[in-house]
Amino acid sequence: MEIGVKEASGLLGVSEKTIYRWIREQVLPVYRLNEQYRFNRAELLEWATSRRIQVSPDIFQEAPQCKTPLPSLLAALETGGVFYRVGGQDKAGVLQSIVDVLNLPEEVDRRFLYQVLMARESLGSTGIGDGIAIPHVRNPVVLHVSKPSIALCFLDHPIDFGAIDGQPVGTLFLLISPTIRAHLHMVSRLSFILRNQNFKATLKRQASREELIEALARAEGMLTALNAPLPGDSAETH
């Protein structure tokens, strides 16, 4: 869903003047359509997340394309899997190793997936700080997957990922989605979950798959208890 400068200003909690300055500095993902600047909600969320910018909950209110309930992070992780001691001496090598071990349908072209992941990284690092990165496909709709998945990967050796805080990355969450809606859903929920110190501590010590699943279930349960409105939590159309 595309929005204008005024809406982008409200969602990012900054003035329109700041939005125009970011456009001039070419740091904000923006398009020019009929002499007007337009923004994509998914790209704004991704951009804000990578820079730890607090966004308005309204950014998550993208109209659903269907009434199919979106899965929890727990279900997505159970689909994607947990992988330990993933090899690679640099970003390219690590992403290739991850693509090689992913649980994917046979019809998914792994070579193509690797190429689009690298293309996404060329636009800016997906390292979000604290040794964590969230590589993903910019246009998830092109992949032949039936449901969203998250692969949690622990690297054999932390590598320079060009993260915002300069720390090497040792933990990666690779998101694969069939739709933009599913992509927004997972990115937003994961952003909240990674603020949970207990879950982050479990990641830091590279706990067993069972412990990680339990920690994620508890953390995600807290979101439900708080009644936090997140994308895809409602199946109503607008």
Would you give an account of this structure?
By secondary structure, the protein is an alpha/beta fold. It folds into two domains: 2-60, Orthogonal Bundle (Arc Repressor Mutant, subunit A), CATH 1.10.10; 73-225, Mannitol-specific EII, Chain A (3-Layer(aba) Sandwich). The protein has helices spanning 5-12, 16-24, 41-50, 73-80, 91-101, 110-122, 180-193, 197-204, 209-225; strands spanning 2-3, 31-33, 36-40, 82-86, 127-129, 132-133, 149-159, 169-176. The strands form two sheets. The protein has a five-stranded mixed β-sheet. The protein has a three-stranded antiparallel β-sheet with strand order 1-3-2. Helix 1 crosses helix 2 (16-24), helix 3 (41-50) packs parallel to helix 7 (180-193) and helix 8 runs antiparallel to helix 9 (209-225). The longest helix is centred in the last third of the chain and has 17 residues, at 209-225. The protein is globular. The two termini are 13 Å apart.
Describe the global form.
globular
The total of helices stands at 9
- In total, the number of domains comes to 2
Trace the largest sheet across and list its strands. Answer: 4-7-8-6-5
Q: How big a fraction of the residues is strand?
A: 15-25%
Distance between the termini: 13 Å
CATH classification class of the largest domain? Alpha Beta
Helical fraction: 40-55%
List how many beta strands DSSP finds: 8
Weakly predicted, low-confidence segments: 62-66, 227-238
Q: Can you tell me the CATH architecture of the largest domain?
A: 3-Layer(aba) Sandwich
CATH topology of the largest domain: Mannitol-specific EII, Chain A
What's the helix-strand series?
A: EHHEEHHEHHEEEEHHH
